Fold:
Amino acid sequence: MKGSLYPVVWKELRDMARDIKTLVAISLLPLLMMPLMGVTSIYVQTLQQGVAVVINEDPGTLTIGNATFSTNDLANSIVAALKSKGFRVLNHSVRSYDIMIIIPKGFRANLSSFTKVALIKIVKSVGSAKSNEGENAVQSVLGSFARKVAEAKVRYLGVLAGKPVTPDSVLNPIVYTTVLVGPSGTAVSVEESFRVMLGRILAFSLVFVTTPSIAYITDSVVGEKERKTFEALLATPVPRWSLVIGKTLSASVIGLITGLADAVGLLLFFALPSMTYGVNLFSLLTPGLMAAHVSAVYLSVLASLALILPIVIRSGSYRVAQAFSLAIISVASVVFFISLYADINALTPPLRYVLYVIPYSHAVGMIKQSVLGEASQAAIHALVIIAEIGVLLALAVKLFSEEKIIYSKT
Amino acid sequence: MPGNGYAIRLEGVVKTFGRKVRALKGISFTVPKGVIYGILGPNGAGKTTTLRIIATLVRHDEGVVEVLGHRLPEERAEVRERISYLPEDAGLYHRLTGWENLLYFAMIYADDMESAKEMAARGAELARLPERDLHRKASEYSKGMSRRVALARALMVGADLVLLDEPTSGLDVFSAYTIRKTIKEFAIRSGTTVLMSSHNMLEVEELCDRVILINKGTIVAEGEPEELKRRANASNLEEAFIKLVGEFD
Structure:
């Protein structure tokens, strides 16, 4: 026991377990906030009623070959699509609206022509959140209508030319197929590619887990000094490495709790679109992905603690610790944000090597390689983070100065 | 080497903070083993700096510091094994109970859990707290109770040298009396060397076998309280201090 890690970890965990308010706050906040964000955003969307105006200035039908089209049917389809998106649809002009669709005079003549194009006018109100949603709905209807007209024209031209025509071969002369493959070259399903994307999103959530543990370890050092418990402890034979490691491991428990709560919160956040749009995102979560995520969370937290600890120990100041923790969280955010859109391994050398030095890049690498089934690559990333954490903690032990801690301004 | 007749030896010790603050200006004194030794002086005299140097927390710039036969700062680890230190206004871990506060420090010094519990039990006796108070969180303690536990934490570990920085500072009459009584009884019973600082002259006079008077980083006088009073032709140590220092701050 003497000279071991046990007393410090025993005290830190006991102290932490008694701090119920902090534990509840760090667990409940991410657990509730993420789903709450999901609920409110979806609920607010449903509450928001846009105003759309659909004006048909050229009612009637047109014929292409033996196919007949009606602008009234087109207008009705547009109205139905807009209503399905929660719009109140009017057929006359008003002063205030989100989107207006006009089928102008001469539309039928142009549409039935083989030399002109038919125009539909879409007017969007600037600053309207609903107008883009309405435009997408209208474009979908118009795309489908235009395709039918194009097919009719191709068929008619075939009849005039006296040749058999398949509209698809004219309208889509080239088709392509996309096959997703894993690192081994074997095909993977679309679901699995979604899993990789989910892994990236989970990796991005690591940004939020570092803050509470950094705050905890700062308080564990600076707060202990402020509460006048540190000086007596520093005069005991407790090894400095056991103080550094003990406080780091204990603070990492906070990070782990936050990480798990954050992951559950994130899953609940995803559950809402799953229920709303009928996509089962839960099926993408394999035990392997969850294990990789939890490991990456834990190592990211440890890395954050190892990064801040030498600074806290050297400065012994809340303000300095806060400034540096903000810098660390910003770096972590940048890395996780980059990882959402880019593959770190594929970046050009200077940037790639810079990112390789940052532990968070390897946390992302762990998750990405795990979802791709590359266990050995994931393990290498894990080992790199562990090595970096080891170096930083050794630095913290080396920089440990009782005098600096005692005399620094908190 | 350990075993010499003194517990502490300081020779020409200088400590400067920054470029301007010269906290200790070459102080020298020797503390014999088994005595209660007092460092007396006003605020800012250099008492705490001296104790911190001996407690291995601060490095001196010049001079020689030997504690229990070990040179500082080179043999800090050896010294830490054999001393205990109660800083001024030392706090407790307020989310832990009094018992847990004692047990934590006991675990740092003891080889196993059983010995740690025995040591903590010894601390509980020294703290003179009823059983139910001992298992209450330290945040619920009065200042006097907290100080008793903090003192017990320093005394229970079986150190060869106990360093106490202003152990009764800010306490009411009853709490200060209990603390002094505990220190006195502990020193008599265990024969441990105690080095304590104070600016309370009466307290030092009551507790200490020998005293140094320190002012502005310099030792003004050293000797037994009675001897210092005689030397200054004073009725108490407070008067002696003022006469020996020769000035009012």
In short: Chain A has a mean pLDDT of 86.
